[in-house]
Amino acid sequence: MVHGMVMLVFIYSTCLLLVQRVEAADPDPLVDFSANATTPVFRNIFANGDVSIGSGGVRAALDIGKFPGLTSEGLTVVQFKMVPCGENVPHTHPRATELLSLISGGPLQAGFVDTKGQAQIHILYPGDLIVFPRGLLHFELNVGTETAFYLSALNSQNPGTLDAAGAVLQLPERAAAIAFNQDIATVGALKSQRPYNEPPTLEAAKPGVCVPGQLISTTV
């Protein structure tokens, strides 16, 4: 019953988000349903979606490639199962706003950095939602002791995902070294350890960096 109410709130909030945006992320649809859509139902996203598995958990996305029923509807949906101290590493969606709802487990530390360099960091509990404005750097980290199950909806059928750390390390080493105020050797070592991930996978913290259930804070 509680999960049902959470899903109703999530769907209602998503509808408000999509309706109230003055500028749509995608063009308005010209037909009710895509000619390629044989059904409005998709079964078992964690088995049949666009699944990526990392040390921090499972990410299962649903876009028009996997589910033609989404064509021209301006939506991408992603579900997550994140282990304690797993992280959806900092990234951006250049073409979409994201609305995230924690369904169970966690809690999650989640937030974004705005164009003034100010961080908006919050702790989410089951039933909570957070919006990540279009194009802004954001992340989610499971700071609890239980696997976090959460759902994200993005208001574009092609939102794009840019892995922030991996992207910076794709720059010439000299440019990245200046940006990080490091020497070229240090940047080279980081680059060898941190490839660009597409799509980004959920990563687990190294020992000592995060302890499940401890330091549940917006400042750590």
From TrEMBL:
Its main location: secreted. The keyword Metal-binding applies. It is found in: Secreted, Extracellular space, Apoplast. Residues 1-24 form the signal peptide. Mn(2+) binds at residues 91, 93, 98, 138. Oxalate binds at residues 88, 93, 98. GO terms for molecular function: manganese ion binding. Gene3D superfamilies: Jelly Rolls. Residues 43-188 form the Cupin type-1 domain. Keywords: Apoplast, Manganese, Metal-binding, Secreted, Signal. It holds the Pfam family Cupin_1. One of its GO terms (cellular component) is apoplast. PANTHER family: GERMIN-LIKE PROTEIN SUBFAMILY 3 MEMBER 3. Belongs to the germin family. This is Germin-like protein. It comes from Marchantia polymorpha subsp. ruderalis.
